[in-house]
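Entry 14. Structure prediction run on the chain below.
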Amino acid sequence: METSWDDESLTALRVALSTRAGAVVDLVRGRLTDEVLQLVGDALIAAIDDHVDGAHQVAAECAAALRVRDWTGDDDLADQLEAAVGMSATPMLRPVAVDLEELSSLLEGDPAYGGGRIDLRTGDTWPTMIFDDVVDDEADDEADDEADDDPDRWLYVPCAGSRAGYRDMELFIESVADPAVADRLDIAICGRGAFRRFKDVLSRWPDEVHRYWLFADERRRGRARGWLADQGYRVRGPRGLVP
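Output returned:
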């Protein structure tokens, strides 16, 4: 199965996401495939805020595609897109400028290192070990300790482990068109060391490697967005795009 987003076009998309919201509209127009829906959704909301021509139509199309796909977090993003184009009320969620990739790393990283926190003022994510080291270096009185536990400043992020990531591999294998390739990957994920073996076997087919990372990234972003919504928050938009 081929992807409509090769390395060159995906690089152009990521540059657009990190610089100008308006450029995203032209890049994804007519190309709102499952590979990029979560990736571009926040930028489309920012494009609407910036009154970019065509942003409303593309955002509505993205929302519809998210409803159809219906992965974890898709409905939450669709709600925000539909509110941005005036199709529904704005979700009653507090905005926070968090990076979903960073949040996903806290949620689905190694359980031995144990989750972390989001600084609700800045959107910065802090893995538990790094946060504890900084606190140990800086805290010198009870007032500092209380500030570190301020629920208006910090949102604790638990570590759910790798179960969802394993499920991503299973679902990806189901989408592989070549039965022989799918069979080898299915064998690779059996038993301990499944993630390493899966990646080693998958590396024999570069096109499938590219497709897998797009697939897994979309699903991780959606899970991070869904978790954030459950806590009462929504992404404020790509950093640098929304004040």
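Residues 239-243 have pLDDT under 50 and may be disordered.
Filed with the rest of this week's runs.
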